[in-house]
Specification:
Beta-Lactamase, 22% strand, 683 residues, alpha+beta, five-stranded antiparallel β-sheet, 5 domains, binds adenosine-5'-diphosphate
């Protein structure tokens, strides 16, 4: 992927991240809501329990008070005997701890008699009863008015032991004959009411209290537990003549983060959900990556197929075309739609060859013959009817399961190749014609080159002869004329051998003594040497065996090398020019096989410059104004034709040595060379 893609996140990445953030936030919010709801639910539950408890406690208290009031009414209704009254009152006080004192008072509230609770010291011990009679009067007035028991407001009674208590009085009228004859005044301890009338199960974990409507606490029972969450419930207790508020406090621990199984379950499920989502997202990412890779691979394959110049075609086992690439369509000029699904004679088969192709296809589909690996050539027809040659390479199409599902063929349009082949054949023919013409030119060049020397010699001898004649000296004339004859003969031989050479005839090889070869060219060499003032030295070991060679050509080689050497020394204006011609037998260690002679021509000229050395044997290469540049290349061709080698090297302190080898007449190399030779190469 391009680097730019990694530098800035893709839009898909961003939206995925946003979705994930939203999801995590939602799950978090859901969890928080659940915990909050569970907590709230629990709080509501606790509150409603408390309300119910408070209401139950209030009912208990009311019922208890009503029950006490009835007992007190029974007490008041009971005749006028003081002793019996006291016994009953005493019993009541024993039975009901909340009653701290019961008094019998006259209609004018004067005390008749009174009894204190046996469970505590008399409550009015510290504060005289007369101080609290105002409340009793109010209650009794109401009781009188309504002819039923009435409660006074509660009031605080300090005690001798220092701990006071909140009490209220109940005034029960004694009615006899329709008139109030007196009152029974019972004093209740509010705290004891709470202790005895409220069930212990309600006060075990709760604090129950009486308060005034304005919130002032009057009496309290139960254990206070601070530092925890407090729930409060109140119940108004409307007693005749007094209104009290029953208040209940309950302490519960703050709801846990996982207060109940449901929340825990939902939390676990939420976490599992997020985990599954994460796994799904990972899987999706992997899928997306794989899909992208696949798409890239597909696009790459498509691009590759489309850029191919090779046509591709697939057929199923019934011969129907199932696939063609664009190169194939371009090749035959039909669209893919026109080709796909086609079976039988394809539209690109030339009608005249359709039968042959049909048979070939049937054979192929029958799977009897595998197509040749290197392919085979065929002819197809374009949509416009023109034919073109194709190279077809076919191979079975094997699916992923290793089963053959058809055939895949590759097609190469070879019309261009054919055109080039045709062109090169025509060029070849033209070249050959040109080469024949060139041969004629070469022959002419060679002839003129090789004939120069005998003709020059003839001309020199003729001039010499003329001089002799003019000088009246006929003695040397004969020799000169003989020499002229020899040179003319030589010229004739040159023409013949060059002619043979150019016509590529086999050379006539003969066994020649090396001395004879040198002697034959020596007069010509001497002629030029004398003119240039060059000393000619020949070193020919005695008793050397003869060599097998084309005598004229080898003489020509020696002559060419000697002439080049002399020209070099002349050009270099060497002080004491000398030319050394040497023949020696090569020792067996130097050259493979026993029988080789080495001829060498050494000069003391300027030597050969490196740039000249590189092109020395190139035909027509010369550094001379008059030169033709054919001498050395001809020499090498001749020597190599005899199986030998022509080399050159510097001749210290100055000059050059050219050496060439020739096989002895009876050496194995000679026998090989005597066999029908390859046509000579024209240099
Ligand atoms: P030509 O003699 O017609 O130039 P050659 O093929 O015989 O053609 O020689 C090619 C060239 O090789 C010469 O022009 C000359 O420069 C160089 N050459 C040949 N022999 C010698 C030599 N012995 N010393 C220096 N240069 C030489």
């Amino acid at each position: 992927m391009p680097a730019a893609a990694s530098a800035s996140p893709e839009p898909a990445d961003t939206s995925r991240r946003v979705l994930w953030a939203v999801l995590v936030t939602l799950v978090g919010a859901l969890l928080a809501t659940l915990v909050w709801l569970a907590g709230r639910q629990e709080a509501l539950h606790v509150q409603s329990d408390l309300d119910r408890d408070t209401s139950a406690a209030a009912d208990d208290i009311r019922a208890g008070l009503v029950h006490r009031a009835q007992s007190l009414q029974a007490l008041s209704a009971d005749g006028g005997r003081r002793a019996a009254w006291s016994a009953q009152a005493s019993q009541l006080l024993r039975d009901h701890r909340e009653l701290v004192r019961i008094e019998w008072r006259t209609e004018a509230l004067a005390p008749v008699t009174g009894l204190d609770s046996p469970y505590r010291s008399p409550v009015f011990g510290w504060l005289p009863r007369s101080d609290t009679l105002a409340d009793v009067q109010l209650a009794c007035a109401q009781a009188r008015r309504q002819s039923q028991p009435a409660y006074s407001q509660s009031y605080y009674l300090p005690q001798l032991d220092g701990i006071g208590l909140e009490v209220m009085d109940l005034c029960v009228p004694r009615i006899s004959g329709g008139t109030v004859t007196g009152y029974v005044v019972a004093t209740y301890s509010l705290r004891e009411i709470l202790v005895t009338l409220v069930g212990p199960q309600l006060t075990r974990n709760q604090e129950v209290s009486f308060t005034e409507p304005d919130g002032t606490r009057l009496a309290l029972h139960g254990t206070a537990q601070r530092g925890r969450r407090t729930f409060t419930s109140q119940q108004l207790m409307d007693l005749a003549g007094n209104t009290l508020v029953l208040r209940m406090n309950s302490w519960r621990g703050a709801p846990d983060p996982l207060p109940n199984v449901l929340t825990a379950l939902v939390t676990v499920m939420s976490i599992a959900l997020v985990a599954v989502l994460a796994m799904l997202s990972k899987d999706t990412r992997r899928r997306v990556r794989v899909e992208r890779d696949l798409a890239e691979a597909l696009a790459f394959r498509k691009a590759m197929e489309n850029s191919l110049v090779t046509g591709l075609r697939a057929r199923d086992l019934q011969g129907r075309i199932t696939y063609v690439n664009s190169a194939f369509c371009a090749m035959v000029g039909f669209t893919a739609e026109e080709l796909l699904g086609q079976s039988g004679p394809a539209p690109y088969w030339p009608p005249e060859l359709a039968d042959e192709y049909q048979t070939r296809q049937e054979v192929r589909l029958a799977g009897q013959h595998m197509p040749p690996r290197e392919g085979f050539e065929s002819v197809f027809m374009r949509k416009d009817g023109s034919r073109f040659p194709v190279l077809i390479i076919e191979a079975p199409l094997i699916n992923a399961g290793g089963v053959q599902t058809g055939w895949m063929s590759a097609f190469l349009d070879i019309s261009e190749q054919r055109r080039v082949e045709e062109l090169s054949r025509a060029t070849q023919e033209r070249l050959q014609a040109t080469a024949r013409l060139a041969t004629v030119g070469e022959m002419a060049s060679l002839l003129s080159h090789e004939l120069n020397q005998p003709l020059a010699a003839i001309s020199s001898y003729a001039t010499g002869s003329l001089n002799l004649l003019q000088g009246g000296n006929a003695q040397g004339l004969e020799v000169a004329l003989q020499r002229i004859g020899q040179q003319a003969e030589r010229a004739g031989r040159v023409i013949k051998s060059v002619h043979d050479f150019v016509r590529r005839r086999d050379q006539t090889r003969e066994s020649v003594a090396p001395l004879r070869l040198i002697e034959a060219v020596l007069p010509l060499v001497n002629l030029q040497a004398r003119k240039l003032g060059i000393t000619v030295v020949t070193r020919i070991a005695p008793g050397l065996p003869p060599v097998l060679c084309d005598r004229t050509m080898v003489e020509q080689v020696v002559l060419n090398l000697a002439r080049n050497a002399m020209q070099a020394m002349d050009e270099a204006r060497t002080a004491r020019p000398s030319l050394t011609v040497q023949v020696r037998r090569l020792p067996a260690t130097e050259v493979a096989g026993p029988g080789w002679l080495e001829f060498s021509v050494a000069d003391v000229g300027a030597g050969i410059a490196p740039e000249v050395q590189e092109r020395l044997f190139t035909p027509f290469f010369t550094t001379k104004r008059e030169g033709m540049g054919l001498g050395l290349s001809l020499c090498r061709t001749v020597v190599e034709q005899h199986g030998g080698q022509l080399v050159f090297e510097p001749n210290p302190p100055q000059g050059t040595i050219f050496r060439f080898t020739l096989p002895l007449a009876e050496s194995p190399a000679t026998l090989a060379a005597a066999a029908p030779a390859e046509p000579l190469r024209i240099p």
